[in-house]
Amino acid sequence: MNKHVSIIHIGLVGGGELCTEILQKTSSVFDQEEIQAPFIAVADPDPASPGMVLAEKLDLLTFTDYHELYDPRYSIHLIILLTPEEEILRDILQTRPERIRILSYPVFRIFWQAIGNEARKLRERTEEMETILNGIQDLILVINPDMTIGEANASFLHKMGYTRAQVIGRKCHEVYRKIDHPCERSTDDCPLQRVIRNKRQDRQIQKRVLPNGDLRFYEVSIHPVWEKDGKISRFIHISRDITQQRQQEEEITRRLEQMVEDRTRQLKETHAKLLHHDKMASLGKLSASVVHEINNPIAGILNLAILMKRIIAETVLSQKDIEQFDYYLNLMETETRRISRIVSNLLAFSRQSRMEMKRLNLNRLIEQTLILNANLLRIANVQVETRLSPDLPEVVGSEDQLQQVFMNLVSNAAQAMESKDGGMLRIESMLQPKMSQILVKIQDTGIGIPADHMSKLFEPFFTTRKRKGVGLGLSVAYGIIQEHGGSIYVQSVVGEGATFTVKLPLRPPGEKTAPEGGRHD
Q: What is the rounded CA–CA span in Å between residue 38 and residue 45?
């Protein structure tokens, strides 16, 4: 590239050490800025003086007679005296053409010393900044608009395993990506391209493999330095090693995930225990009722057996006795089967709860629940009225847990009516085809639920009974229905009773269907 032409031509008179200093310092500066030096000639009677020798090396004009500087061919605008001899100053003042101005030695020394002081301060500041930059652990680069690296601090060179000669003046893509062509403009992870595109500073996380093979994570920030005309003059590229921080965050995340996993497992275990506890509480309430329910047919069977033995011992059997025995045996068989049904239902209900999803008939579950609670309802003087839809389709759910829900609701209804010396329990099931769900209503004519209790009804351990129950039944029922994708709510009028409504989808979202009687994988 051609250098810019200087708009002023300067001639120097005096080839001593001061001349050498001026030429050395100014020539390097003008070369960096690609400007042609304004000094075009040096005049000194001694051609071997250091200033004359250096001027020749720099291809400047050299004269032993300073009067030759007046020649119009050289278009010299200013003569600077680098010698303190006053007679030379007086001679030039008398002989110079009017177009040439002159700067005397004393005045120039003042300017030169001031320039030197500022240069010294600038060097000190530069050294100070270099010391600060080299002391920073972050990796810092100064990148020019043409993507060449203009400066790099010691941390960058040390971490990346480079020398200054391997970095300064090279393209950033050669150093970072080890490629000999610029990054594509569409490369999203190139922070310089993003700064240019978005016209603002950029920050991102990058992965880098160091020369020793280590994988490190860096937080890269690019700060553009703007010129007055809005163009970018420099990019300040700062990389901060966050590998340790990233590893700590990953470890914290791993621990949190483990804690969540452990807590989830504990909650599942607690939920299973609550289900079992509530079931045991229900079994406790059923025990006395079931004992009476079983004792009655057993007493009948025993009496019939004793009667039959006495008849056999006291008389010879006649045809009428044989017919009577056949009648007795049928009664005994009927009562035995009744006992078997009660015991089977009780054993099925007492099994440990598990979420075994299969197709089931809600009407059958409701009937089984009423059989188990038959004596409890009779003792409470409760009449039962059922309106179970005969064409009710099957639902997908856990038979064990849904029966636990109905056990709680029927038992609670019986207790609510017991204090009123009985009442009517109405149970209704129906299909709601538009909603793809089954609705079950359990309505009692008991004492009802106060309004201030309604919001707490499904909370764990909330109970209005002072000596009975722990307040888990309705909260467990609520949780079971929620797990099946359904809903449960209550309406009540104090003194008139309560209605619990359960809604269950025909197929809970996300559930797989196991074959009838099979387990859910």
A: 22
